[in-house]
Amino acid sequence: MKRILIIFICCQVFFSCEKPKETTNINPINWKNRAVKLKESDSLKTGQSYLSVYSEIYSITEHRTINLTVTVSLRNVSTTHEIYLLKANYYNTKGDLIRTYFNDPISLKPLETIEIIIDEKDTHGGSGANFVFDWALKHNEHEPLFEAVMISTSGQQGISFTTQGVKL
User: Fold this and answer.
1) Which residue, among 121, 130, 112, has the nearest Cα to 72 in the 3D structure?
2) Within a 13 Å sphere around the CA of 71, how many CA atoms are in the beta-carbon half?
3) Of the candidates 21, 19, 18, 27, the residue with the CA atom closest to the CA atom of residue 121
4) Are the C-beta atoms of residues 49 and 72 closer than 8 Å to each other?
5) Parallel, antiparallel, or unpaired for β 113-118 and 56-59?
6) Which of 163, 154, 81, 150 is nearest to 119 (CA)?
7) Cα–Cα distance for residue pair 152/156, rounded to 1 Å
8) Strand-pair category, 157-164 with 106-108
9) N or C terminus: which one in the chain shows less Cβ crowding within 10 Å?
10) Which DSSP state fits 121?
């Protein structure tokens, strides 16, 4: 009986020393590998788009919230030309910049989609989080599409909804 108690205590000590997991992107993209050099001679049309996202929403009262996992889709809807994303800035409810996802332009092939995932445990954005995307494309091409899906599940209950970006 003493041996079982000693083994139990050792297991408790061993597993309680585990480091807490950091909040990370699920399947993070290596943005540096996607970087491209743009030339001034390319004469690209530039623009900005805004996308609202919610890393948490209120439930029952303003004192109780539900955390959400956010999937942000960055989509090239052109069937023939690549587009360029110049910047993806993530802001919290107060409008403070939380993070910039890449500093160098990246390209998306025709009909390609890349995603930014915000973990359910990452509540830095709050109930009024948002993204601003800077982009560039060849004239007469379709502008990129930015969408978000927010989801949370607990037991047999689930909540999900979507938002779409708007051009600024």
Assistant:
1) 130
2) 13
3) 21
4) no
5) unpaired
6) 150
7) 11
8) unpaired
9) N
10) T
Residue length, the chain? Answer: 168
pLDDT in tens, 63-95: 888 889 999 999 999 999 999 999 999 999 999
- How many CB atoms sit inside 10 A of residue 6's CB? 10
Report pLDDT digits (tens) over 98-151: 999 988 999 999 999 999 999 999 989 988 999 999 999 987 889 999 999 999
Q: How much is the pLDDT for 6?
A: 66
Tell me the two tokens of residue 134: 């800077």
Residue showing tokens 């092939």: 109
Global pTM? 0.78
126 contact partners, CB below 8 Å, separation of at least 6: 55, 56, 92, 93, 94
H helix or E strand, kind and range, residue 166: strand 166-167
Q: 25 falls in which pLDDT band (50, 70, 90)?
A: very low
Instruction: Identify the bridge partners of residue 85 per DSSP, sorted by sequence position.
Output: 106, 135
Number of helices followed by number of strands (H, E) in the chain: 2, 12
Strand partners, 80: none
The pLDDT value given to residue 159: 86
